[in-house]
Amino acid sequence: MDLSLSTRTEGDRTVVVVGGEIDVYTAPKLREQLIDLVSSGMYDLVVDMEGVDFLDSTGLGVLVGGLKRVRAHEGSLRLVCTQERILKIFRITGLTKVFPIYASVEDAVAATD
Q1: Predicted TM-score of the model (pTM)
Q2: Residue 94's domain is classified under what CATH number?
Q3: Cα–Cα distance between 109 and 76 in angstroms, integer?
C-alpha cells in the first residue's frame, strides 16, 4: 500500500493528513514532507494519523525526527490517532510520554500544551 499526504492550515497550525502505511518504503516521503514544512517556517504541526493502516519503527523514527526539528524552533508536533493498534505501538515504545496524542484534529489544533 502507498502513502498519501496532504497538508492544510488550521489557525496557526499546519495539519498533515497521512493515509496508508508508514513503513521502511514510504517513511522517506513523510520525512521529506516534514523537513519541507519546517524549512518553510511551519513549526506547529498536527499529524493526522486517522487514515494510517500500519506504522513500523521507521515511521516512528520519522515522527521523532520531525519532533526534534520543530522543537529546535520552539515548535510542536501533535498527533491525532484513535486507532488502538497504532496507539499500542506508541504505548509499547513509551512515545506516549513524548508525543501529545489527541482524538481529533480540532482538539489538537485547540490545545495549548
Answers
A1: 0.96
A2: 3.30.750.24
A3: 11
